[in-house]
Write a structure and sequence with these properties.
- Helix content is about 35%, strand content about 15%.
- The protein is α/β, with parallel strands linked by helices.
- The chain has a six-stranded parallel β-sheet.
- Helix 1 packs parallel to helix 3.
- The longest helix is centred in the N-terminal third of the chain and has 17 residues.
- The radius of gyration is 17 Å and the shape is globular.
Amino acid sequence: YSDFKIKKNIFFKNYKISKFKQIKFFEDYKIKPNTKKILYVPQNVTHMFKSKYSFSSDYFYNEQKKICDFLINDIQDNFQVFFKMYNNLSQNFIESYYPIHPYIVDKIKSKKNFSFVEEKTIIEFIKKEKPSTIILDYISTPLWEVIKFPVNILIFNDNKFFKLNKNFLKLLKKRIYFFNNKKELKKIIHNLNFKKFDNKQNIKKFIL
């Protein structure tokens, strides 16, 4: 998704060694969001952790499908919806960790207002396309990258598996919309009102 690098492995192709780039969390990203553009960033399904510490694969995949079904079937045609995943994925990686990828490919066939992001990072994409709304599966790296953009951020509520610190959650809710299901996601999308989070000190506290 991002400028962060991981070690070369069998799942990635055309890998080039480059210097580690530290994300400039406190840089001001001044863009004028397009209210008709939405970005969804599906996370990979992990088999590495026990369900006590993470979503079970089946549960997580089913929730991803519900999000996709809403975006593909219920969003008005004048919206553009983008999907961002890891770059240069091998078929092996997709089959093992990204079942949502072929699901989306099949669903958006012949639909002109849906597409996959070609830009290498989320930041590059947002600067170019300027989406007004970004949907995430759960709290992870993409959140820390988009937090300074003047965009709506929606995150699937993962309290069933992750118990966030109450103070941290309170701070998050000042900036982020949480949804528990497809119905809530639909309601939020149709009634979006950007949550301002301009205080730089709070941003620093939020990230650190």
